[in-house]
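From the pipeline queue, job 12 of 40. The input is one protein chain; the requested action is below.

Action: predict structure.
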Amino acid sequence: IVAALCSLAGLVHFCRHPSLTWSAAACLTGSLSGSGESIQLKPPYASCSPDLSRSTDTLDPRLLFDCHDQLIAGRSESSVFERKAGKHLSAGVTDKVQTLLLFVGYPRSCHSLVGSLLDAHPNMIVAHEYNLLSRWAQWTEEQRTDRNFVFNELFRSSKDEAQAGVRRFVPGTAKARKNPNTYFYGVPHQFQGTYHKKLSVVGDKRGGLTSIFLSKTLRKAHTDLDKAVINHFQEMSSRLQVRLKFIHVVRNPYDIIATMLLRKNNKRRPAEQSTIGRLMINAKSQRVLANRFFKLFVKPVSIVRQHFPTLDTSCERLLTNPQQSLQHLCAFLNIECSESFLADSASIVKSAPSKTRQNIKWTDTALGIIRENMDRFSFLKEYVFYD
């Protein structure tokens, strides 16, 4: 019976995998062995083992596909092997979601780290760069009002990232070290790509490009950017019947602009490896990019902060005291943080933020532009060049 069901579900390739042993006993007991290791399925994985006491006519073959997905995911170093079965969130799950979480801010400012840590929380799903705002404009009216559809899109993105993206490996592990030029954000023993018991918050990590979308796309359609931003997000909140909250990850603007300059001029890697001091960057590039940074990124942030619940989170404080920062984030989202969640999340955070600003030989004009603009925004005033 088991062999017939595996064949019916299209899992012959899995049953024949050379490094795995998939037997009738494994199907019944929920265990997998191979390559000298044994993995035992734990609750809530009871649903992964099909109930063979039922008639095979009523057994949903998708259960076996779900078993396959979970077993493969369980072999990753990035998360505990205790995931909810199923490829989709049911309406009963999405109906209980209370908050839609979005990010607004700048590139190279810890947004990916924050989003990955929050996605590890058992009651949250945070997609990695799904680009909800752009897709929202492409969807039909029916899709925009379908909570189940929207939240399942974000769930799928989160799950894919945990299994095959930057969240699939834990930093410092052997598999992560094989890819030294890639940042990995896998949190051990937690719930990236899934949830546990209930789902309260669903979101999309897309910080810098959210600001660009608001600056460029909405400005093209509306002359009043403030009004356009307010209307856009109010419509989203109303259609999905959720509270809309924003996380704004702040980092020293000198470091962000320096990284953008180095990348734009293909000097990021040479700057990291340089032993001869600071690199020269064209004076015009410094001036233009400094002005562009505040127009394209900082202005939309200030509008969102004025009209919607927004938490400013310091990248530097997150890196030096991750547990305290995560407690503030959880409190903002009305979510409880367990000690294990805080400890496991903090375990992947490096303690020292990089000071990219030290890799560039700045012009006085560029530094003046940055300082003058920083003083206009309360959330940037505390930052200085020398600290």
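Job complete. Confidence is low (pLDDT under 50) at residues 9-85.
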